């Protein structure tokens, strides 16, 4: 489906928090997976596919089925690493990032891949018939109805995502390959939930629902009809905005490692999570990572309270609290706890902190409508993304 014409992300009406979550994990895939909960017909799969459309191509080893990074031996399969270490010049090609969809009814062998016994016997070396995780490496892995997937398969995928490698052991033969991907799972809560242990391992979560405004609903109808009538012409209308977003993501990725998060902002995160009695320390770390990605997308090199405010909305609404005795916090509870924590941090550190908060809508408008102007153009390449995953 390389020739699939997708609906432009910049033309999608509403769902601003969802868009921000997708862009954040695109800028910093190490944040972890994103869970999207919502009723049918809200455009969940449309937005996921639109994300791949605004990501720059990556360079891969041309003759490798695992999309290995030709420049980084740490992100190579054993065969590519062996060739690299021998000094062999690996063949390179550019590849557009794809959305790899996990099919309903997928089996463990389909996900992990299987040992190629014939090749092992013929060549005497471990060899793998690639599975879905192989194709997903350095791409987007999309799981629709993730709540209906067997728990053991979700565990396998989350383990691979956490380790960055897929390990296959069959018939006393083992094989591994890199498995770094952007993970997005969608679900309709009416069809069942995910058990808390798995839910906690999905770093971000956003709830989506249909838009109430008649004016915005009318705009959704018009844009979808126009796209169906002539998708090429429709995409051309949004070409400049799409290119601006593509450049902004590339710039944010070049900036992310330079984004500073002060001790005051770290304390703000800690107080916020403590106030809400969130279980474990993973949510605190996810908020910090997401806040840095949001700052980079906004073109800044330091984290502000508004970044933490939005990041907390994405990182906490699905978290267990007080050892599972409390339900996950609502957006209103997160907002209240954030303001309380900010007040305490200002009082404790006796510092002045800008209290102007930005909504998800304001973030998206700035990201989509404002062309990015790098402070140091010499250090930023907007032509290609060779090291999307680090």
Helix/strand-derived category reads: alpha/beta
Percent in strands:
5-15%
Oligomer: single chain
Number of strands: 11
Give me some keywords for this one.
45% helix, single chain, alpha/beta, globular, Rossmann fold, 11 strands, 390 residues, Helicase, Ruva Protein, domain 3, 2 domains
Describe the structure.
The chain folds into two domains: 33-202, P-loop containing nucleotide triphosphate hydrolases (Rossmann fold); 257-375, Magnesium chelatase subunit I, C-Terminal domain (Helicase, Ruva Protein, domain 3). With 390 residues, the chain is of the alpha/beta class. The chain is built from 16 helices and eleven strands. The radius of gyration is 22 Å and the shape is globular. A five-stranded parallel sheet has the order 4-7-10-1-11. A two-stranded antiparallel sheet has the order 2-3. It has a two-stranded antiparallel ribbon with strand order 5-6. It starts with 15 loop residues before the first helix and ends in a 21-residue tail after the last helix. The longest helix has 19 residues, at 331-349.
